[in-house]
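dumping this here so i dont lose it
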């Protein structure tokens, strides 16, 4: 009986504690709990609404309060925004979470902020954030890999040394984690850019040894063999990528290009069609198919595909240029000139665009403009093969 009374007393004390906790739960905390539930269900909008309500109810309580997790509400709302692709709001929430509770400034959250900047194309800010994470945890191999990717992409801003910085980070990643296949793939991409195709092949091969399911490694091998002119090997590698992932639109598109280079146009068309079927927003596939239609002298279809590519990516200079070629071949010289001009606007050093625009001016009988464009093409190093 004494044991039973003691057991009953223990239960009563426990229930009293639970009721005490529940009794002090603030409306803000209730919204946080709702948000957590929605977040687990991947209901991003509902989660954002709940966390926003929690923040509005009380954004001043300290995160250490039993009944308040406002800083974490910002953090988790940032997660929901991140999943929705709302990068600006995600960055703002992550930053606010850390400002409320500096203890949240851990590598996991800092790298999320870095990734958000990376996704925005702000590679300089991304590099700064990844560097913070590395300073906290010098053995965080993934931070080196992602910072390397940021350096690699920042090369597009004409900072040539960034390729070397990228390679340094990829090397460090492999030093810390020799079984990280993605780091070998990243090094392979740098070697492709450096026109060192055999080294690239070695890196992609190593990645596949580590993980035979890495489709980007097979694609990388295909690209390296294509650049070497070994289209048979390239096609074989692209096919392996497709075998691993039959829904990989990029592999069909790349294999289509390899078939195109071997003049197997029917097979190329099948692959371009498949790539577009899988991903109707794949601008490169429309561009490539448009070129194939142009080669078949089906200019109307070519122009339609190239227009679609431009609609999907309005900064796609090659699509403007290729549509210019199709319009020129169709006798639409005015439109061809407009297309070449658009391409030149996106890349003022696009020598071939100046030359082909000159050809369209020539067809119109405008010799003065033709000569201006041809002189510019020559100044940029273009030598036509008549």
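and the seq i came up w/
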């Amino acid at each position: 009986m004494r044991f039973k009374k003691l057991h009953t007393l223990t239960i009563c004390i426990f229930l009293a504690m639970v009721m005490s906790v529940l009794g002090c739960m603030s409306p803000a905390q209730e919204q946080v709990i709702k948000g957590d539930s929605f977040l687990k269900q991947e209901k991003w909008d509902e989660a954002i609404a709940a966390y926003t309500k929690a923040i509005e109810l009380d954004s001043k309580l300290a995160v250490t309060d039993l009944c308040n997790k406002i800083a974490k509400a910002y953090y988790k709302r940032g997660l929901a925004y991140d999943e929705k692709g709302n990068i600006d709001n995600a960055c703002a929430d992550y930053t606010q979470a850390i400002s409320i509770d500096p203890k949240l400034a851990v590598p996991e959250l800092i790298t999320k902020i870095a990734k958000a900047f990376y996704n925005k194309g702000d590679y300089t800010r991304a590099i700064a954030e990844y560097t913070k994470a590395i300073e906290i945890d010098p053995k965080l191999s993934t931070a080196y890999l992602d910072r390397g990717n940021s350096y690699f992409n920042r090369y597009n801003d004409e900072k040539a040394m960034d390729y070397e910085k990228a390679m340094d980070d990829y090397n460090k990643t492999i030093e810390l984690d020799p079984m990280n296949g993605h780091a070998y793939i990243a090094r392979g991409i740098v070697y492709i850019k450096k026109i060192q195709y055999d080294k690239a092949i070695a890196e992609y091969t190593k990645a596949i040894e580590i993980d035979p399911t890495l489709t980007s490694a097979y694609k990388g091998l295909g690209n390296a063999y294509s650049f070497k002119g070994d289209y048979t090997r390239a096609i074989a590698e692209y096919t392996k990528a497709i075998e691993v992932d039959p829904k990989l639109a990029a592999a069909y598109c790349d294999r289509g290009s390899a078939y195109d280079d071997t003049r197997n146009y029917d097979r190329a068309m099948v692959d371009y069609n498949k790539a577009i079927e899988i991903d109707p927003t794949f601008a490169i596939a429309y561009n490539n198919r448009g070129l194939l239609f142009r080669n078949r002298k089906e200019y109307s279809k070519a122009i339609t595909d190239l227009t679609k590519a431009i609609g999907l990516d309005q900064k796609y200079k090659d699509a403007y240029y290729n549509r210019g070629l199709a319009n020129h071949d169709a006798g639409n010289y005015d439109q061809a000139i407009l297309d070449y001009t658009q391409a030149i606007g996106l890349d003022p050093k696009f020598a071939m665009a100046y030359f082909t625009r000159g050809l369209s001016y020539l067809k119109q009988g405008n010799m003065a403009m033709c000569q201006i464009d041809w002189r510019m093409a020559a100044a940029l190093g273009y030598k036509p093969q008549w």
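Residues 1-6, 8-23, 61-68 have pLDDT under 50 and may be disordered.
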